[in-house]
Amino acid sequence: MAGPINQARAKISKIFNGEPQSYTRFNLAQNTDGDNSHVEVKLSGDGEEEMDGTEAGHHGASNTYTQKPLHNYKKVCYIALAILIFFLAGYLIGYVTHRKTDAGKLPGSEGVSCTSVQPDKGKDEGEIVVPEPTLDWSDITSMLQRLLTSDDFDKKLSEFAMDKHEAGSANDEGLATKILNIFKGLEMTPWYDEHYVHGNRNKVFFDSEAIGQPTGYLAYSATGTVLGKVVYANYGQIEDLKYLQDVGMDLLQSVALIRAGKISLAEKVANAAKYGAAAVLIYPEHANDFDGSTELYGHVHFGTGDPYTPGFPSFNHTQFPPAKSSGLPKILAQTITADMALKIHTKMGGKAAPDGFQGNLRGISRYFLGSDNDLVNVTVNNVLTDTKITNVFGVIKGFVDPDRYVVIGAQRDSFGKGYAKSTVGTCLLVELARAITQMKKEGFVPRRSIVFASWSAGDYGNVGATEWLEGYLASLDKKAFTYISLDGAVVGMSTFHILTLNTQPSFFYFTLYSLEEPMKMQDGAYPFLAFSGIPSISFRFSDTTSSDYKFYGTDLDNKENLDIATQQRLRDYCVSAAQVAGQMALRLVHDHILRLDVTSYSRLIRKHVASINGQVIQLTHVSAGNLNSPLKSQWLITAAGSYGRAASSLLNDIQNSELKDDEMSRNINDRIMRVEHNLLSPYVSPREVPFRHIFFGTGNFTVSALIDHLKNPKKEDDDLLRNQFALTTWTIQGCANDLAGDVWALDNLI
Question: Which residues, by range, are in coiled-coil regions (predicted)?
Fold first, then answer.
C-alpha cells in the first residue's frame, strides 16, 4: 500500500512546495498503524489555517472614542421607535420569504430542489443561524480520518454488489431506492429526478456458422446489413488508419476488425467512419486475462447524454424535437469475442501486419491486414426503447453560502457486474455522505454546500449526469463550482492517477504538475467541464501507466479480479480514495476563498497564442497568397494579455482584502467560478455543439481547429479563418473582462 500513497504524497507535496500562488501544501501521508491504511491530507505547518493577508496590519491598532451624553429625552424615544419598526419590518420580510420558499417545494424533494440549497433555520421563522467555526483544518482532517474505516467499506461493498444492474432495470431502481433511503436516514433532504432516455440492443449474424453469434452489443450502433472485405485496423486510432491508407489498404465500404483498448469504443467507430468503413467489429485481446468467450459491452455514441435529445433534458412529457446527436454513428458496430476474432484472423490474407499491429491471440503467430477476397457479412438489429432512469441526490448544506456547492458523484449502473466501474464508486459516495454528515453534527461548519449525486445510465455515455446538466444548465454554472468524480477510483494499487482535461497545469491547486493523463470523453467528469464549464476532476489508484481497467465492459469486472488487483486490500484502498475525495471537497467548502487556480489558464492561453502567432508569421512569409489579405494576431495577443492581467489583479485583490468579510469573499469566489464557464464559446449552440469549450471541445470554434486551419489555409476558407480568429479572441477577452470584476475594472483595449 505504501507505493501509490507515497507516490501521491510526493507528487502533491511537490505541487505546493513549488507553487507560489497556492495557499497551502496538500500532502498525502500513509497511516501505518494497524490494518486500516488510509490517505491523510496535511497542510504546511501544524494545522496551519488559511490567512487572509490582512491580519498583520491590524495588530497594535487602537480604536478610542469619547461617548457624548444625550441631552434630549425625545431623541431616545425616536431611536427606540425606529429600532422597533425596523425589527418588525425585518421579521415580516423574513416570514414572507420563508413562505415563498415553502411554496416552491418540488414533490418528493422535501424543500430542496436540485438548483437551490437553503441554509439552516433557527427557531424564529426567517432567522438564519450561522454558528462560529470551532474546528481548524487539522481537526477537520483528523475527524474525517476517524470516521472513514475499512470495516465500514467491507459492509457497504457487500451490500451494493450485484450481478446485473443495467440502467433502468429493476436492480438499478432498487439501488436508487436504497441510496435515497440512506440519504433520508442521514437527514440530507434527498430528492431525485427522472429522465426518459433512448437505448437499444444489438444482435449480429455472420455468413459463416463457424464465426458465431455474440451476445455482447454496442448501444447506439446503426442498423442494417453490410457485406464487405475485412481489414485489420489494430486499435482503430487515427495513426493506425492513416498507416493502412499509406500502404494502399482501401477502407471504403470495408469491415474494420479492431481490438479493444487505447481509445474508447465510440472513438474507434468514429475514426473508422471517417476513413469510409461500413462496419466495425471490436474484440477484447488479453490472452492471459480473458477467456476466449468473454463478451464485451459498451456504446458508440461519440458524445454524452441521450443522443436522441441533444441539448435538451429527457424529462417525461418533454416535446422532443426531431433531432439526433451528430455523434451517433452512421455505420454498423458490434463486439465479438476473442474466439470469434481468432477465426476471422486465421482466414485473413494480404499483407503482413507491422510489428505494432501484432497481438497475442492464442493459436496465431502473425496477423495480416486482409485481402479483397476476405469477405464478412454483418447484420445489426437494434430495438430502440424508452427507458426511465433515476438520479438520486442528497445535500449537506453550508451556513454562509448554501447556494454554492461542490458536487460529488458516482455512476450506479453497469452492463454487467461493474464492481470496479460502479460498485466501488457508489460505496465511496454513501460513506463520504455518512462521514461528513457526522462531522457536521460534531462541530464542522461548512461555508458552502456539498451535493452528493448517484447517476444512472453511466455505461450508456454518462446519460444521467448529462441530462441533469442539460435540465439545469442556466443555474448550475453559477452555483456548482466543482465536480469530483468517484467512478473507477480503485482499479489497482501501484500508481496514483489524476485525470483532467488540461494537458497544462490544472485549474485545481492540488493537481498542479501531477498530471498522469488527460481526461477522456467517457470519464464521468468530462461533461461537467466540456458541456457546463464546471471545473472537474477524476482520480484513481491503478496498476498500469494508464488508468484504464482491462475488465471494464465485461463480466470479469467483479470482486474477485479487483481483489487480485489490490492484493486483497480493496477496503483499505477505498478508505484512501475516500480520503482524497473527501479532503478535496472539505477544503473547497471550508476556506473563505475557493482553492482554484485562475493563473493556470494564463499559461495555457499564452502557449496557444504563441503557437498561433508563429503560424501567422510563417503564413505571412511563405503562403500569404493563400489568403485574400494579410492576417494579424495582435488582437488575440492583446486578449491574452488582458486575461493575464485580470488573473494577477484577482490574486492582488485576494492578498489585500479582508477575506473574513463574507460579501467580499463571495464576490471574489464568483469571479473565480465563472472562468471555466466563460471559456465555453458563446457563439455556438449547445444543442448543435454540446462540448463548447474552446480548449477542450470539438468543432471549428476551438483553438486547436484554428491552429490546424492555419497550417494549410485556402482562399475559399478565408472568411472561416477570420471568423475563427474573431471567436477565439472575443471568447478569451470576454473571460478576461468577467474575471476582472466590476465594469470599471475592465482592461478592454480592443
Answer: none
Farthest-apart Cα atoms in the chain, separation = 111
What local confidence, expressed as pLDDT, does residue 55 receive? 35
Cα dihedral 397, 401, 403, 407, rounded to 10, equals -60
CA distance 410 to 484: 9
Residue of 430, 491, 424 lying closest to 158 (CA atoms): 424
- Lowest mean pLDDT across 95-99, 314-318, 626-630: 95-99
159, burial (CB in 10 Å: exposed 0-12, middle 13-18, buried 19+): middle
Answer yes or no: is pLDDT of 443 > 50: yes
pTM (2 d.p.): 0.81
What average pLDDT does the chain have? 80
Neighbours of 720 (CB within 10 A): 15
C-alpha cell at position 579: 480520503
CA 117 to chain centre: 22
Q: Which of 332, 262, 328, 340 is nearest to 296 (CA)?
A: 340
pLDDT at position 83 over 50 = no
Distance CA 136, CA 51 (A): 12
Report residue 676 as a C-alpha cell: 471555466
Torsion 398-404-405-406 (CA) sign? negative
Sheet with 401-411, edge to edge strand ranges: 191-199, 385-396, 448-455, 401-411, 480-485, 536-542, 495-500, 517-518
Determine the Cα–Cα distance for residues 160 and 182; give it in Å rounded to an integer: 12
Q: What is the mean pLDDT of residues 80-98?
A: 41
- The pLDDT value recorded for residue 571 is 97
Listed residue (352, 375, 447) closest to 230, CA to CA: 375
In sequence order, the 6+-apart residues with CB closer than 8 A to the CB of 420 are 488, 490, 491, 549, 551, 552, 557, 562
Residue 497 is predicted with a pLDDT of 85
CA separation for the pair 607, 594 (Å, rounded):
25
Strands 298-299, 218-219: pairing is parallel
Distance CA 636, CA 615 (A): 13
State yes or no: pLDDT of 56 exceeds 80: no
